[in-house]
Write the structure tokens for this entry.
Amino acid sequence: MPTSTALVRQPGYLWRSVPQQMPTNPLTVIVRKAFNDACRDFSFAVAERGFTRTKTRLWVRLNEQTIDVISLFREGSSYGAPIGGTLDIRLNSSARLLNDTTEYLALNGPQSDVARTRNGKYHLRFNAKSRHMYDRCVTDLIRFVDTECEPWFAELKRNSVGSTNDTVMVPSAESRKLLGLDRILDH
């Protein structure tokens, strides 16, 4: 059975890495594969818009002064194993200056919250078992990027032109680590 490691607090140790079995719940395996497939297909589409996948659920686009970021999240994943076969996807976007030294990603852009999803008629879920509505979900993820995120990124870019006195900016060590930029900068 496949294993991974988890950090746990134990007496005598501050934190200790302990082997942990990967989930064997068949539905977990199905949902994970379906989400990975959706992320793969999403990657192909956003690559045409200049985004590069740098981490499992993170895509970035480097600009002269900023980094555009898109992340996908499986709704309900923080609650443990999936209960049904429905996979709900949440899209978050953000932007940060290249030289930003904060060690966290502020989700400061458009998000596929309930109100925005309903108003735009975005269907960001599908059945992981049957793949019913899969194509619609991936298409609507891209439509969300095009209609909600891209105008926001463009406005930020217009507002940031010249705001750094035309100095050449390079990604900070924190941005490189947080966003996995070394995968694309070291080529």
Summary: Residues 23-185 form one domain. The chain has one domain: 23-185. The radius of gyration is 19 Å.
